[in-house]
Structure formats: structure tokens, C-alpha cells
């Protein structure tokens, strides 16, 4: 992963207000919705210049002056023509994009490197939590026609766009200097462009490799930690699902339908201390009898990282299962500690809570006894961190173990209690107003 971090000693400083010289339009004019703009004379004139029909091909588009204007703006070959609509299904813009036939490209001939690294969701949540902690405003930036700004390193040619063929040279083709939508190297080209720009402005680039996790999780688990354990369990049977597994998946959807407004709440003004909880379910996998591990990490009261996964080892005892889970949770804490150093935080004696006193005793004992020598070497990683004073282990009773919901199925009352304890709230407009007043 590549993350870009502003150095501390820089000519740039945080400001409370955005510079007015960089604001387009009248700053004193209130924000207008599209519904309000419907009565604006200027917007009415704009609507007359937008085509409400969606052309199916180039021939139909060339008969419509609005589409011709949209195509001239792109000045490429358009394989996709569609209308952009608002929430009322009113056409607000004609979108025309040239899409190259990237499926015809072959590796080693048309491109060499494709991977474009992206930010982990934990890094995004750490950033949002830090913003809430400092009461900073967040500005979102969008780049128009992003992929058209990435310079190509390879030599790529495309045919002249239909409707824009040069009559003097109809047999010639275009030599692309920058990427197009559809090219397999387009994401990588834009990433290199953005990366070089940020580095030129004083940002630094850190590289970190992360292990891939077992199974695939649904997209909603990035913002709904309450369904992680259930989704993780169902994902194990994607290759050989049965009617029983399908029934459980439907139960997850019914739960989501009844809790559609649930989400994480990051209150401002709370602390920013890094704490973690670790739990294990001995022989939690009914097929392989391997460990099911659950771990969560907080910044103050803000939950920023969570996981529920099946470990690739079989524990001989409950204590061994908890010890393996502690090591896995410690690794995630060390990763977050490294990321938080970019924000100026250098955490030591990080509290890590576990509900097994035996596992804590093994982690704090540097001597390898005969009953622990069979444990894989990589799980002894936590001993070094405890010895160095980076991690401090604390015992927590099972009823207060917040990671319990990430390892096993629970009763309804127990589950609802833990959902609220990890910081999830019903984010309806009325509830948001109450939460805002509480944290003000």
C-alpha cells in the first residue's frame, strides 16, 4: 500500500477557512439543491441544451446537436453514450466516453505492469477518526475524466473516432499519449501521475505489504462490523454451499433490512488512545476444527479496525487458541501503530485485552516450556512486543470482552449489547441530532 503523508516541517499549514481565492463562484450564495435549481432561469436555459434521449450508437448520436457537442468535448471514439440523471431521473448531462477495447490487449505486448495500489480501509477510518478528534473539516476532491490524465509508457494506437475521421487521412490512426477508459494499464498510469504529483508537493511515500485474508467478504462489512462474523462464516462455503448456507445468507439480508440505518458513530472530543481486544473460539470451524479469531482496535471510543477469520492452525487447547489470537491481534496493532506515527503519535504500552489469564501468562513468560514448544514460531511474535514495552496485556472478563461477537454466534441480548458497546448507533436524522448535541 502506498500512503502519502504531509511532513511536519513544511510551508503548508492547516487553516480554519478555505482560501477565498480558490473558491469558484460567489461564496456568499447559499447552497442550492437540484430541485431548487429547477426554477432558476439559467438552469432552465441549460436544460434546453441537454438531450433527454439516450443514443444507442454513434449514428443516432450524430443526429442530435447536444450529443455532437458532448462528443466534441471528448473528441474520441465513443463506444458508450448515456445520460447522467439526478434523484428525480431528470437528465442533467449527456455523458460521452471513449472506451478502448482493452480485452484485445495481451500482456508483454501492449502493457507490462497493471497493478495500482489502493489504500486500506483501516487507513481511511484512522484518517476520519483523527479528523473527528481534531474537529477538522474534510474536503473531497474529484478529478474529471481521471483516466484521460495518465501518460502512457507503452506505444498504443487506436482508430480514428467515428464521426471525426480526418477526410484527408482516413487511413491513419491515432497514437495515444495518455490513457483511455478500457485500457488495462489506465489505472496504473493515473496512479503514477498522482503519485509523482504528490511527491513533488512534499508528500512522502511508504510501502507496506499486507497478507491476504482467507475468504471474501461482502462490501458492507467495511462499514458494518456487526455482520462480519456471519459473513466471514458464510464465505467459507462459497465453493460448496448448501441450502442451509443459503438460508443463513438470507437471514443476514433480513437483519440488514431491519437495521438499515445502523452505522459507526465517531464522537468528537473523546480520547485518541489506541486500545485492542482479542478473542478466540477454540475449534470454531465445524469442518476443520481450526481456530476462529476475532480482533478489534479502537482510537479512543472510535472503532477503526476489526476482523473475524479462521486461523490456519489447529489448537490443542483453549489456552493455545487464545495465545494464537493474541499474536494475530498484536500484529494488527503494530501495523496501526506504524500508520499512526505519520500523524505524530508514538504509542507504547498499548493495552490489549484478553479473557484468558493462561494465554497472558504465556505471552509474558520468555521461557519456552515443553507445553508450548509445539506452537508455531510466528505466534511467539507477541512475546518480543511485550518484553519491549510496546504491548501491555490485560485480563477482561468474558461478559466485557468486546471481540466476542467476532468469533461466535451470540444470544440476541448479548449481541445487541456488544453492538452498542463498539460504537454502532441508529443514524436516523433524529438520532443524529441527539448524538451531535451529546458530543457538542
List the helices and strands and how they pair.
Layout: E1 2-5, H1 34-37, H2 41-48, H3 58-61, H4 65-74, E2 80-85, E3 91-97, H5 121-134, E4 151-159, E5 173-178, H6 186-200, E6 204-207, H7 228-235, H8 243-258, E7 262-264, E8 274-281, E9 292-299, E10 302-310, H9 318-341, E11 350-354, H10 357-364, H11 381-387, E12 391-395, H12 412-421, E13 424-426, H13 429-439
Parallel strand pairs: 8-11, 11-12
Antiparallel strand pairs: 1-6, 2-3, 4-5, 7-13, 8-9, 9-10
Helix pairs in contact: 9-10
Description of the structure:
With 440 residues, the protein is α+β, with helices and mostly antiparallel strands. Helices cover 32% and strands 18% of the residues. The protein contains 13 helices and 13 strands. The protein has helices at 34-37, 41-48, 58-61, 65-74, 121-134, 186-200, 228-235, 243-258, 318-341, 357-364, 381-387, 412-421, 429-439; strands spanning 2-5, 80-85, 91-97, 151-159, 173-178, 204-207, 262-264, 274-281, 292-299, 302-310, 350-354, 391-395, 424-426. A hairpin with a 5-residue loop joins strand 2 (80-85) and strand 3. The chain is elongated, with a radius of gyration of 27 Å. Residues 83-208 form the Reverse transcriptase Ty1/copia-type domain. Residues 1-35 are annotated as: Disordered. Residues 10-19 have a biased composition (Basic and acidic residues). Pfam families: RVT_2.
Amino acid at each position: 500500500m502506498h500512503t502519502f503523508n504531509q511532513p511536519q516541517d513544511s510551508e503548508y499549514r492547516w487553516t480554519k477557512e478555505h482560501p477565498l481565492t480558490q473558491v469558484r463562484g460567489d461564496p456568499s450564495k447559499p447552497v442550492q439543491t437540484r430541485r431548487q435549481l429547477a426554477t432558476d432561469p439559467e438552469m432552465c436555459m441549460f436544460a434546453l441544451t441537454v438531450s433527454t434521449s439516450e443514443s444507442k450508437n454513434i449514428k443516432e448520436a450524430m443526429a442530435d446537436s447536444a450529443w455532437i457537442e458532448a462528443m466534441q468535448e471528448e473528441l474520441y471514439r465513443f463506444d458508450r453514450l448515456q445520460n447522467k440523471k439526478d434523484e428525480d431521473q431528470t437528465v442533467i448531462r449527456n455523458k460521452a466516453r471513449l472506451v478502448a477495447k482493452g480485452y484485445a490487449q495481451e500482456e508483454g505486448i501492449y502493457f507490462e505492469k497493471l497493478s495500482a495500489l489502493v489504500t486500506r480501509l483501516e487507513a481511511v477510518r484512522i484518517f476520519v477518526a483523527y479528523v473527528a478528534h481534531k474537529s477538522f473539516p474534510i474536503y473531497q476532491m474529484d478529478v474529471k475524466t481521471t483516466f484521460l490524465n495518465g501518460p502512457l509508457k507503452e506505444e498504443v494506437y487506436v482508430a480514428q473516432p467515428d464521426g471525426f475521421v480526418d477526410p484527408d487521412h482516413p487511413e491513419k490512426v491515432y497514437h495515444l499519449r495518455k490513457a483511455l477508459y478500457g485500457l488495462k494499464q489506465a489505472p496504473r498510469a493515473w496512479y503514477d501521475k498522482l503519485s509523482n504529483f504528490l511527491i513533488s508537493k512534499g508528500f512522502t511515500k511508504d510501502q507496506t505489504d499486507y497478507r491476504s485474508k482467507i475468504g471474501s467478504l461482502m462490501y458492507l462489512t467495511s462499514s458494518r462490523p456487526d455482520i462480519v462474523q456471519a459473513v466471514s462464516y458464510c464465505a467459507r462455503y462459497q465453493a460448496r454451499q448448501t441450502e442451509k448456507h443459503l438460508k443463513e445468507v438470507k437471514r443476514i439480508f433480513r437483519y440488514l433490512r431491519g437495521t438499515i440505518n445502523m452505522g459507526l458513530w465517531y464522537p468528537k472530543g473523546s480520547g485518541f488512545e489506541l486500545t485492542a481486544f482479542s478473542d478466540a473460539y477454540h475449534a470454531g470451524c465445524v469442518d476443520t476444527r481450526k481456530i476462529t479469531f476475532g480482533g478489534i482496535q479502537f482510537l479512543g471510543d472510535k472503532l477503526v479496525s476489526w476482523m473475524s477469520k479462521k486461523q490456519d492452525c489447529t489448537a490443542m487447547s483453549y489456552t493455545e487458541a487464545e495465545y494464537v489470537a493474541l499474536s494475530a491481534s498484536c500484529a494488527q496493532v503494530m501495523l496501526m501503530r506504524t500508520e499512526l506515527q505519520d500523524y505524530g503519535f508514538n504509542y507504547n504500552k498499548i493495552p490489549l485485552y484478553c479473557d484468558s489469564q493462561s494465554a497472558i501468562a504465556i505471552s509474558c513468560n520468555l521461557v519456552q516450556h515443553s507445553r508450548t514448544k509445539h506452537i508455531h514460531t510466528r505466534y511467539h511474535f507477541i512475546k518480543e512486543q511485550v518484553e519491549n514495552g510496546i504491548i501491555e496485556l490485560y485480563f477482561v472478563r468474558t461478559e466485557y470482552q468486546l471481540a466476542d461477537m467476532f468469533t461466535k454466534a451470540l444470544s440476541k441480548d448479548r449481541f445487541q449489547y456488544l453492538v452498542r458497546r463498539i460504537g454502532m448507533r441508529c443514524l436516523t436524522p433524529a438520532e443524529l441530532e441527539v448524538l451531535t448535541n451529546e458530543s457538542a
